[in-house]
Amino acid sequence: PLSCGGLSLIVGSSVNGPTVLRVCDGIAGCDHLDARNLGEATGSCAGAPAAPVVSFTCPAGGYYSVMTAPASSTTVEWLANVEAYPDSASIYGLSEQQVYSVREGAFYGNIFLPNELGAEVDVVETWDGSKKGYRVVGADVIVPGSIYRKMFSCYDPAWSSGAAYAVNRVCALPSSGSNCAASVTGPCFTSLSPPVAGKCEILDGALTPGDGDYEACHDHDNVLWTQSVTTYLHTPCDVVAKELRTQLCGRASVPTKPLPSREELPFPFPRKK
Description:
By secondary structure, the chain is mainly β. It has 2 domains: 13-94, no CATH class; 102-272, no CATH class. It is 6% helix and 33% strand. It has 3 helices and 21 strands. Strands 14-11-8-20 form a 4-stranded mixed β-sheet, covered by helices on one side. A hairpin with a 4-residue loop joins strand 18 (215-218) and strand 19 (223-225). The longest helix is centred in the middle third of the chain and has 9 residues, at 162-170.
């Protein structure tokens, strides 16, 4: 309810005992003194057990999250079923796909190949008299390109500056393209504007239809990797430094040509197509 008085509809409930609520700006939790704390309440409305109610102004970003807890820190079985008042123009809660809807790209390859490392970092034990210490050898090395020579990344072609975004995403030294966690291969799927060949053959894997996961992706040598991880963001600027957001966070509507799905591929080794 918007308040405890009057004939407001009771929504949600406390289970087994009184609970507390805290509403936070954005999609993550917050502390009591955090500026993102939009409101909090203990079990204050009629009911058995008493139900907490929080009224707040929706944040400018349009998303809020709710934290729940037992009213007593010594109990764990007191639970809160959270619901939004039906006339509040608010939807709670959203699915993971609704919250993380910006497809970033895909990562694929193998980081566990010792002969394909561009550099090695060792921790060496040292002694100063009877005092033991440790020294890192190789931490300041600079490797052009990817440290993992068999790790690759492609970017969603909806990025306005996909290559620049991807390099800043995977490289510790993006200005020189050095100390990268993966080699950027190009757009993940075929774009018609401009016409660029995609690196992945499947745009939506068959295991969970509709989740938009890339599969069967190729590296620079056209070797096929059958396993990939597709990442999604909440907003395009989630992992971009503030000073680079105007350059890298742009998204455009990109027409794409659907590619046919293919039968299940062998695991775990890549093979030539």
